[in-house]
Design goal:
This protein is an alpha/beta fold and 297 residues long. It contains 13 helices and 12 strands.
C-alpha cells in the first residue's frame, strides 16, 4: 500500500528544490526526506526527481504527477484542519491571528470582554504575527488582516481601513527637521523592515520612492519598526493607529495613499460556518464602529 505521508516529502522537494530546504520546511533532517522520497520512488517503480549538483529537478513523470500529489496534500491538510476545528468547537476556542501591535489595543478596548460576556462558553486566543498565518493549515481560525492577498479561498468582510503614514520622533525633528514631500524622504535616514519582510507593502513602497535611501535600522516586525522610529535613529512608515497613539512621535507625511488597504475579518469557508466562529463574526459586525479606532486610529 502507498504511504500517503511520503507524498508530502515529494511535494516539499518539488517546492523547495532540495532535500535540505524541504527538511527545514517540514522540520525533519535531510536524511529523512531522502529516505522517504527514495521509498516512494521504489514503491511507484519510477523516478520522480533527478539529482543534480545544484539541487533536485523533477523528471517528466514527476512533473506529470505533481499536481495530483499536491491535491492529496491539500486534502490531508483540510482533513487535519477539520479535526482541529472539531476539537476547538468542543472547547469553545477561537484562535484569532492578527499583528502583534493590535493585541494590546484590542485587549485594552474592552471589545473582547464584551464578547466573552455575551458568549461565556467561548474564548478568544491570539496567534500573533506580522506575517500572514495560513488559515488552511489550521494554525488559526480567524484572521484580522490588512494588505494584499491572492488567496481566493478565504471568506469574510471588510471591517475598516488600514492607513499608514511616515513618522519621526520629536527629538529627531528638532535635530534634523522633517521631509516636506515624499521626494525628500531619501535625504533622511530611514527605519525599515529586514529581508524577511521584503514583501510587505511598506518595504516595497520605500524601495520605489527611496531606492538609494540610507536604511539605518531594520526590523522584522511593526513593533520593532516603531521602536526604531521612537529611538530617533531615522524616520519610517507606521500604521496611523500605532503612530498617532505615541506622544513621542510626529506624523511628518501622510496618510500615504499607496499604503492604504482594507482591514478584513477572514476565515476558511468550512470554519466560518461553525457556531463559535459565526458567533464571533456576528459580534464583530455589531462592533464595527468600536473596532475602527483600534485598527485605523
Amino acid at each position: 500500500m502507498l504511504d500517503w505521508n511520503d507524498l508530502k516529502y515529494f511535494v516539499a522537494v518539488a517546492r523547495h528544490g532540495s532535500t535540505l530546504a524541504a527538511g527545514r520546511a517540514l522540520e525533519v533532517d535531510q536524511s529523512t526526506v531522502q529516505r522517504r522520497l527514495t521509498a516512494l520512488e521504489r514503491h511507484i517503480g519510477r523516478a520522480l526527481v533527478q539529482r543534480h549538483t545544484t539541487g533536485y529537478r523533477l523528471t517528466d513523470f514527476g512533473t506529470e504527477v505533481l499536481e495530483a500529489a499536491r491535491e492529496v496534500e491539500r486534502a490531508v491538510g483540510e482533513f487535519e484542519q477539520v479535526l482541529a476545528a472539531s476539537k476547538r468547537n468542543a472547547a469553545g476556542v477561537i484562535r484569532l491571528t492578527c499583528p502583534e501591535p493590535l493585541v494590546s489595543r484590542l485587549t485594552r478596548s474592552g471589545l473582547l470582554d464584551r464578547f466573552h460576556a455575551l458568549h461565556p462558553a467561548l474564548h478568544v486566543e491570539f496567534v500573533m504575527s506580522d506575517k500572514y498565518v495560513d488559515l488552511r493549515t489550521g494554525e488559526a481560525d480567524v484572521a484580522l488582516r490588512s494588505g494584499d492577498t491572492d488567496d481566493a479561498v478565504l471568506v469574510g468582510r471588510k471591517v475598516g481601513d488600514s492607513l499608514w503614514a511616515v513618522y519621526a520622533s520629536r527629538d529627531y525633528v528638532a535635530r534634523h527637521g522633517k521631509p516636506s514631500s515624499i521626494e525628500e524622504i531619501q535625504a533622511h535616514p530611514l527605519a525599515g523592515f529586514e529581508e524577511s519582510m521584503a514583501g510587505h507593502r511598506a518595504s516595497q513602497w520605500l524601495r520605489e520612492v527611496a531606492p538609494d535611501a540610507n536604511i539605518v535600522a531594520r526590523s522584522g516586525s511593526v513593533l520593532g519598526l516603531l521602536l526604531s522610529v521612537k529611538a530617533g535613529v531615522g524616520i519610517g512608515p507606521l500604521p496611523t493607529a500605532l503612530g498617532d497613539s505615541e506622544a513621542e512621535l510626529v506624523r511628518v507625511l501622510g496618510p500615504i495613499p499607496a499604503l492604504s488597504r482594507d482591514w478584513r475579518l477572514l476565515a476558511m469557508p468550512e470554519i466560518r460556518k461553525t457556531a463559535r466562529v459565526s458567533a464571533f463574526f456576528d459580534f464583530i459586525a455589531t462592533e464595527i464602529e468600536a473596532l475602527k479606532p483600534i485598527i485605523t486610529g
